[in-house]
Structure formats: structure tokens, C-alpha cells
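User: Hi! I'm working on a homework problem where we have to compare a predicted structure to a textbook description. Could you give me the structure for the chain below?
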Amino acid sequence: MRQICIIEHLEPKIGRWVLIEYAHISKIVEKNNLWFTNIKHRSKKLERLGKCFSQSVRDMNLKKACILDPEAKQLLTPSEAKSFNYFIFGGILGDYPPKKRTKKELTQFIKGKARNIGKKQMSTDNAIYTVKQIASGKQFKSLKFKYNISLKMNKYLTLELPYLYNLIKGKPLISNELITFLKRKKGL
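Assistant: Happy to help. Predicted C-alpha cells:
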């Protein structure tokens, strides 16, 4: 069964950081399994990464949908994950501390089940990777994570990213393109 990952874009614009993360997600799940909703202006860059919709997922009335929300009471399990056709994620650049925007802007409006993948905030690409692993049969507790990674920006500055990252072969799942962007970003 084909499962679609849906990112409800909730940022005011599609900035460089967001675009880098969305491109990473497209590589993780493949273009034909990725939808972007709530896209107010046509974006050829996003259309290369997945299917784009101007309407919100809130208005789509999807059957067998699961909204991923850290505030949800139940943890997503492999057996339950297999029953969903759609996994809905908030396309939100994380705040620290979290502002619980997924719950406020999505969960309360969508018909479907809300599940969490742990209580710690993840980047959207890590959340999607985690759900993909769970849907393939892995238990959440068997996955390896690192919380709060540090990126050396230069010899004086280190950037702390206070989120939960999947560990793959001992390394945090983060796009090399994002690391390069952060190092070049003005003000760092």
C-alpha cells in the first residue's frame, strides 16, 4: 500500500532553510509519496520535490489519515502505521521552547487519529524519517536518536540545534546542504 506524507506548510514563506529541509524529505520518501498543502503561491521549486496543493489539508477530508503531533497522547506503532494512507506533518520551523503549533493549527481541525513519535521536537525531515521507519515495522524504542546536536560554525562559534535527530551509522540525520547553509548564513 502506498502511503503519502503530507506537509502542511505553515510558515509565512518558503525560505531557503525550509526549501532545503523539504528537498531532504523528498529524497527520504521520494517525490511521488510527498504532498505539500497550503501552498498559497505556485512554486516550481516545490513542484520538483512533490505534489503541491493550494488548499489546506484541513479541507481535504482524507480517509485513513494520521496527524503527527508531539502533544498527541498515543505513540505511533508499526501495526497501526500500516493502516494509514496519509501521514500529516506540520511544515513548521521549530521554536525553542516549542509553541505547540501543530496542535493549535492542525490537530484540532483534522479528522483522523493524532499520534506522537516521542515527546521531543524533531525537524520535519527527522519526523518523516522516523514515521517511515515505524511504517516499515520498526518500534520507536528500537530507533537510535541524539538530542541537541552542536555544529561548529567557525573556530569561535558553535550552533546548538535543540531537537531530536535520528542516528544513522552513528551520525545525526541532517542535510549536508543545511549545514552548509547555516555556516554561510549572515549573522553566524
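For your comparison, note the following. The mean pLDDT is 90. Helices lie at 16-29, 44-47, 78-81, 101-105, 124-135, 176-184. Good luck with the assignment!
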